[in-house]
């Protein structure tokens, strides 16, 4: 089994910061891709995770999720409100550090094509992965991509999981994208990272739903002004009302801790 890797120094030599009860790496999408190249070149495994308000809400309630983030090699900031809060707290975080799939998808798939990386996607309803893969190959001809739907027994010892790991090993991917929703996707990565033994793992949520056209992506300007959550809420109010209107209030103790930490730094 190949060893897990440690994160390379990224171009701006940023340092991991504590924010709203979690830890994040203030990196730009370009720095994230540079780190991915270093991880792929080094062999072994790496995990490039991401934090948003939903993951922070789950963090205190899901010990396995906290362990996943503690073990991640890089943790992107997937939230403009988080960035605004970090700036209020005087942390070295700026707007350029927002790094989520829809922000770096074009550069990512162009890099995958140009470097000849092999990408395996796990997740989505039956048929969605195939449609997404077809759309990606059309937009970036030459991309080497395989997929497996997310409806299977995720117990690592199950026949489904053993067969999936066999398929992944046969494809021998450089990148493994996992889109099964939070925290299921993170738990799957944690349980299978060492068993697979090679590849850079990304939890990517609904990325392939967007690519397949079964879910509408928010216009990118909404992310730049901190309103992507509102677009998503209006698009799926019944599913997302609790996430966006209730969960953030549970972060109040962590926010108070951040305020205390800032006062202590003065």
Structure description:
Helix 8 (184-196) links the parallel strand 7 and strand 8. With 266 residues, the protein is α/β, with parallel strands linked by helices. It has helices spanning 29-42, 53-59, 63-71, 80-88, 101-115, 128-139, 159-171, 184-196, 207-212, 220-224, 228-235, 237-245, 252-265; strands at residues 17-19, 22-24, 45-51, 74-77, 118-123, 144-148, 175-179, 199-203. Strands 4-3-8-7-5-6 form a 6-stranded parallel β-sheet, with helices on both faces. A two-stranded antiparallel ribbon has the order 1-2. Helix 11 (228-235) runs antiparallel to helix 12. The protein is 50% helix and 14% strand. The protein has one domain (17-259).
Brief overview, please?
The chain is α/β, with parallel strands linked by helices. It contains 13 helices and eight strands. Strand 7, helix 8 and strand 8 form a beta-alpha-beta unit.
Mean pLDDT: 92
Q: Strand percentage, roughly?
A: 5-15%
Sum up the overall morphology in one term.
Answer: globular
Described by strand count, sense and barrel closure, the largest sheet is:
6 strands, parallel
Q: Portion of residues in helices?
A: 40-55%
Count of structural domains: 1
Output the radius of gyration: 18 Å
The H/E string reads EEHEHHEHHEHEHEHEHHHHH
Stretches with pLDDT under 50, minimum 5 residues: 1-13
- Secondary-structure-based class equals alpha/beta
Head-to-tail CA distance between termini: 47 Å
**What topology, given as strand order, has the largest sheet?**
4-3-8-7-5-6
Tally of individual helices: 13
Query: How many strand segments?
Result: 8
């Amino acid at each position: 089994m190949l060893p897990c890797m440690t994160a390379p120094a990224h171009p701006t030599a940023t340092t991991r910061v504590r924010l709203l009860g979690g830890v994040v790496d203030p990196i730009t999408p370009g720095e994230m891709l540079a780190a991915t190249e270093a991880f792929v070149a080094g062999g072994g495994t790496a995990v490039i995770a991401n934090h948003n308000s939903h993951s922070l809400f789950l963090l205190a309630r899901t010990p396995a999720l906290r362990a996943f983030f503690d073990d991640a090699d890089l943790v992107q900031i997937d939230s403009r409100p988080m960035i605004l809060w970090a700036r209020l707290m005087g942390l070295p975080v700026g707007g350029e550090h927002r790094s989520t799939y829809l922000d770096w998808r074009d550069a990512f798939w162009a890099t995958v094509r140009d470097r000849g990386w092999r990408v395996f996607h796990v997740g989505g309803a039956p048929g969605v992965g195939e449609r997404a893969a077809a759309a990606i190959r059309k937009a970036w001809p030459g991309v080497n991509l395989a997929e497996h739907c997310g409806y299977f027994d995720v117990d690592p010892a199950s026949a489904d999981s053993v067969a999936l790991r066999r398929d992944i090993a046969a494809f021998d991917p450089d990148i493994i994208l996992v889109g099964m929703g939070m925290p299921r996707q993170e738990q799957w990565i944690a349980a299978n990272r060492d068993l697979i033994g090679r590849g850079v793992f990304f939890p990517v949520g609904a990325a392939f739903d967007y690519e397949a056209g079964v879910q509408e992506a928010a216009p990118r300007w909404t992310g730049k002004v901190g309103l992507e959550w509102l677009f998503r809420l209006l698009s799926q109010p019944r599913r997302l009302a609790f996430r966006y209107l209730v969960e953030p209030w549970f972060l109040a103790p962590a926010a108070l801790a951040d305020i205390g930490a800032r006062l202590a730094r003065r």
